Each structure stands twice: as C-alpha cells, then as structure tokens.
Amino acid sequence: MAKVAPRTLSGFMELNPAPQVQMETMMDVLRKTYALYGFTPLDTPVIESSEVLLAKGGGETEKQIYRFQKGDADLSLRFDLTVPLAKYVALHYNELSFPFRRFQIGKVYRGERAQRGRFREFYQADIDVIGDGKLDIINEAEIPSIIYKTFSALGLKRFRICVNNRKILNGFYAMLGLTEQAPEIMRTVDKLDKIGAEKVFKILTEDVSVSPENAHEILNFIQISGSDQQVLQELDVYKGRNPVFDSGLEELTTVVRYLSAFGVPEENFAVDLTIARGLDYYTGTVYETTLLDYPEIGSVCSGGRYDNLAEYYTEKQLPGVGISIGLTRLFYVLGEQKLLNPDLNTAPADVLILPMTDDLSHAVALATLLRENGVRTQLHCEQKKFKQKISYADKLGIPYVIFLGEDEINAGVVACKELATGEQTKLDAKATIYRIKAGLDAKAGGTVIVER
Amino acid sequence: MAKVAPRTLSGFMELNPAPQVQMETMMDVLRKTYALYGFTPLDTPVIESSEVLLAKGGGETEKQIYRFQKGDADLSLRFDLTVPLAKYVALHYNELSFPFRRFQIGKVYRGERAQRGRFREFYQADIDVIGDGKLDIINEAEIPSIIYKTFSALGLKRFRICVNNRKILNGFYAMLGLTEQAPEIMRTVDKLDKIGAEKVFKILTEDVSVSPENAHEILNFIQISGSDQQVLQELDVYKGRNPVFDSGLEELTTVVRYLSAFGVPEENFAVDLTIARGLDYYTGTVYETTLLDYPEIGSVCSGGRYDNLAEYYTEKQLPGVGISIGLTRLFYVLGEQKLLNPDLNTAPADVLILPMTDDLSHAVALATLLRENGVRTQLHCEQKKFKQKISYADKLGIPYVIFLGEDEINAGVVACKELATGEQTKLDAKATIYRIKAGLDAKAGGTVIVER
User: Is B136 in contact with A383 (Cβ distance < 8 A)?
Assistant: First the structure.
C-alpha cells in the first residue's frame, strides 16, 4: 500500500511522552493554584461563529484567524480565551453569580508566520474576575499574589511581577495636554530599553510632535525608579493636577500596600512605569512578569484591569481584571533554557511486573492489588528477553520491577528490585507495597522548573 | 454601540460552572484510573494536514469533517483520537518504547446534523496499548478491568462490559463459506434486538443471499447465551473446523479466565456474540459497555483489538488494543437521566471571607494563611449588602463564611459560620483552619454519578 508520510504541522507542539508529563504537571500546578484563590474551571468551544468571535473586528489578529465555512456557517477558531469569556458572561449572565471568578486552560489558534518558538496552536492559561457594574480594587491587588504563588509552585524563584496603572499614564499625559498622542507616545516609550533615551526623545519630538519640554518631562517621568515606596513618593509630586492620575496613584498605592499581607516578597515585585500593555482596553492596573535571568523572553504572564469586558455583546457594564500565561511558549522557552527539571518523575508507571510463569493469574492478581493500593502498575507479558524488559523499565524511568516466578509464588513472596539502587527484596505482597509506597514518597516532590 | 447577540454554536457543549466542575471531576477520575494501569498522557494537535488525517480516505466520516484552507495548506480538524495516534506512533516510532500505553482526553470534531444529544465538538477519552510487531493477549484481557475500574470510580454499578472476538465471528462465517458476505451478515445480525429474529432471517435469505440452512445456523449461533462458561462450552462444539475460529475461541477463553484476577465481578461482564463493532479494522477481542437500566443509550465505552494501527503511514506492523469513551455524550446522557450527583461539591471555594473593616490587611493575611493551608479561599470585598454576600456564598455552595470585624481582630479570633448548619465558631485562625479542614474532609468523597 502507498504510504502517506506522517507529519505534524509546523507551529503545532507535539511532545514526546516524558516532556508531555512535564507539561501536564505544569497545568496541574496552575489548576491547583487557581483553585486556591476561588476560581472555577471553565471550558468553551474552540469553534465560534465568526460574527460573534470577530464582533470587535479589525486589528492584527483578524488576519491570523483560522476562519472557514461549514455548510452555511461562517466559523472561526478562537484566538484567545478573553473573547469567548466575554461571550460566555454575556450569554450566561443570568445564571452566574458576580464577582465571577473563572480560570480556563485551553488551546487557541493564530495562523502566524511559522518561526522558532512561535506556535499556531498554543495553550493559554487565563484567570479573570468579573464584576457586575463595579469591581473592588482589592481584586487588582490580589493578582500579584496569584502570579507569585503560581510561579513559585512551578519552581521559579528569580522572576519579577511588574505593575503599573493605566490611569497614572493617562492622567500624566492629560496633564501635559497630550491625551490624543498618548497611545503613540506609550508605544514609543515602550522601546526605551531597546533603543535608548536619546532615540526615544528624537521620535517623540520629530514623529509624534511632542514639544522638547514635554519630551523631557515624559522621559523623566518614565524613568522614575527605585523601591516601590520611592516610586510612589516621586509620583506624589504630580498629585492634584489631574483627577485620573490621582485615582490611579491611589489604586497603585492600594496594590502595593497589601502586597505583604498577600504573601508577595518585595524582591518579586516592582512598580514599573514603563509598562503600558499593548491592548487598548486596559483601564487600571496592568501586569507583566519577567524572568530575571532571561529578560529577552519578555513577559511570561501579563494582564490588567478593564472596564468593559463584553461591550460588543451586552449593555451590561462588566469590569474585570485578568491575567494570561502563554503556556505552550513558556514551556518551549523553559525547555530551551534547560530549566525543566530532568529529575521530575515522568514514568508512566511505578512498577513493572514481569511474570515468569505461563499461568498469569498470580501476576494479574498482584497487579490488581497494587492498583487498588494506588500504585501505578504495568504488566509486561510480551515475548521479549528479560534484558529487554529491564531496559524497557529503565528507558521509561519506571523505578521498580517485580519478578514473579514459581518459587516466589510457592513461597508467598514477591521479588522486587529498585532499578536505581539495584536493591532487591523478597517480601510478601503487603510489605512490598509498603516498601514501594515509601520509596515513591521519598522520591516525590520536586518542582517542574529548576533554576540553575 | 450596536451589539452582536452572544451565542454558542448548536452542537457545542458549553456548561455552567457547577456542571463544568462535575465534568472536570469525571475527567480527573479517568486520568487517575488510566494512570493506575500505566498509561501515559498524550496530547496531539486538533488540526492536522488533510492529507495525513484523511490518508485512509472515504467513509461516512469524510463528509462530516471540518476541512478548510489556510494559505496554501489543506487542513482538517481531527474527528477522532485514533488517526492522530497512528500518525504519532508512526512519526515518533524511534523515540517510543513498546508496548506503548497512552491515554488521551481531547476534543474531536464532526459536523453531523445537529440533533438533541449529538455533538459536533466532543471529548473522547481513549486508551490504547500498541505493540511493535506483536502484542500479547493479556492486554486484551486487561481492558475489561480498566473499563470496570473506570466506571466504578465514576460511581456506576449497573453496567455490563460485553465482549466478543472477531476471529470467532470470521471463523464461523468461514465455516459456512460466507466469508465474503460476513460484513453484511454482521450488520444485519446487529439489528437482532431491534427488529427480531424473523426479520433478520428474511433479510439474510432475501437480501444477503444466505441459504435458509445457513441463516438458521447463524441465528442459532448468534443467540448462544448464558453464563460466560456456558457460552464458551457451546462454542466448543464448533472447534476444529476452522483455525481462525479456534484461535478466537482460545483468546476469548483467556480473556474470561483472568477476569476475576483482574478484579472484574461476574455481574459486570458478559460474553456476547452479537457484538461485532462497525469498524472494519478490529481483528480480535471487541468491547461494548452498556448501562443496564438505559440500554437505549447504546454502548458508552467501546473498542477492540486491531492488527495494524498505522498501515497508512508506515510499513511497521503495529498491533494494538484500545477503547474509547464518548465523554461529552456520556455526560449529557447522565444529566438527562438525572444520574449526576447533585451533592458533589461544585463550589469554587471552601471559604468566603467577608471583611468588616476598612483596612483589609487582616482579612488578606487570613486569606493567605488559609490558602497556604490548602483551603480554597475567596475574599469578598465588593460594596454589597451583607445579605447579598451570604446569598452569594449560598448560591455557589461555598460551605463556610468568615466574618472579620474590629472585635474579632482585637480579640485575635475569627468568626466562622457553616452555612448548612448555621453553626458559628469564634476561634483563632489555626483552630478555624482545623475546623474547616475537618468539615471539608467529612463532606468529601461521593462519586460523580449516583444511581437511584
């Protein structure tokens, strides 16, 4: 028969079993951490009607969308989890209780140009808190805590959650009479790290038609830095000149005030006035998270406060705050940087049973007993050489191998070998289970990510 | 602004938060049970190249496929998890160890005509064991055990795993010289329950040109029933007439022999000669699972043994055995039949904290402490009436509410109310956590499914 060459589309991550277990472990950590903060899991379709999904319309994303006809229907694959959330909340408004706290880990699709480390199908892990009409600032203050706990639980230490407030920026530019140019100014200022202050000054004055005085003011403002308290103090100087600015400063002060009660260490947090987030719809606190040793990766967890989640679907005012982790890209980058823990247990089983008799009843009964005791067990009854079977366990990282021959069966014992140490015991089934479980407990733990 | 009416496509399941938790719990049970049997989790792309996905070509499925162009690429959404597995094993053959045991829970897509209880996007939960060249019969014998443990863990009791062997059927029809007509005969015989023996006889003799003698033989054969041992004994009569039949009978005998060692109770298992499974590629043991009180639902977990998983992609002989649960449909049906446990804890949090002071530091610190102790905690700081907040906890099923006012803070205690009983305690934080965790433990347990 003529064969079709098997292949996986470029830009689509497909992992081998061991890294897949690492990826699943990451997702588990996220699910558990989000649950601790009272978020409920949600699942929405991958396919939506194009009319609904593209209600906002325009923008860079639209070109990247997987859009197609099926019968009469104009369909699109979701390109993020925010638009489906907006639709969900608008559609199910009457069945939900607000504030509505949900997390969603799901695949999204963007037909970007294929390049290393860019994916067309990738997981996003999102949390959002949606209010009905209003939403208290404490929700914005809680987000750094969630980011901190999430990355800590994954095993990261050297990361920083950077926070700013859009009202501070908008208020500041309003003071200078530059409200209209603000978006363009922010885009320019965002390049400060890359192109330097002089170049930014040049673009501001020449291309964005900002006066030299204002350009200086902007550069001074944007470069305010130091400890969180120092930054807040320097910002205090601008107070009283614009109500939006004042409100933003108050919010930022609140976010900073509760940090320690929320368990966020100072070294994992910074007020950073250069952060604006590209998206237009953020209106308050904005977040970015960077790995201190890998700044080139950019933000690995971003988000912010918005005033109107579902304005394209409903008259209801639905303010919220949310963050998103691009999980597939993060996983890829962690792998590239060799930050994934090679000692994480990725074996598909804890024990491999090698029956040495024709009648398998005893081996099967032992496997059943092990499983009933929560030990992940595989029977290996293929016609292969003994050495091959041991090598199989070895390759998969299965820590224990059990041999069950006539002698053992007659003596009522089980021969159990720990592959790493070579230590072999002959104990009855119960004692063997006890030994294996103790060994597994000792080996357990260890985070997905290990920093060098 | 003009609004777009929010809607979810018909045939796409989108659950409210509480049922979503039930669904997630089901998936968790599946993941845990599959892991106990040494299956490793796998994830493959939802989109594949059409050439790869449709390598087999033809068939009913092709019309239902979501297929579209993106740039130059001819793409399709996967319609099951078997074809992607075949591609995966062929593509990653050199990186895998065999037997390769994987499970996958993922969404698949079929553009069927929309009707109640039929879904266009639905989860399948599959397990497969793939051998390299050969695969021992014990793997086929193990499958009923996995099905049994899975459904038991979900909470079902009244179900039956029905097993047959394609070799027995093929061998039997070969004895009668009816090999060519066998597929059509099996399709006809499959309708026995629905249309009765007389009608089957009529179709066999008139439409499939089977002689009346053979039609009688077929009907007698297919209606062999009784205990597993009785069926095997009656089949013994046919032995020695066809090697394929004999081999099938030996396999079926092996599957039955190990049942009790695999922990499968007799009442949950039956040899059923009417089962053939529609798909052509099954070659040995085949499985169906029916809910005894809801036979009209059909099989909720099916599969079988096949000889050649990836014949469209590779010359390698890759025999395997697998089963699949149509999870979305099962969930829907369970809901319709009111079999989902209404007492399952679906609350997004264990505790709702209501701060009664302007400064939230104490409340935040308490929330942090609770979370560090594994208690899922939500702070409720919105400007709403006290009654509304209690009603919020009530609606979401959050079992405990904590009030934290000046008095409590000054006294170093926490007022904690269990909503179900109204019981209120004023204890310090540690004792409160202890009380809550004990209460949660007492409430825990309970399966997703509860039979009446």
Answer: yes
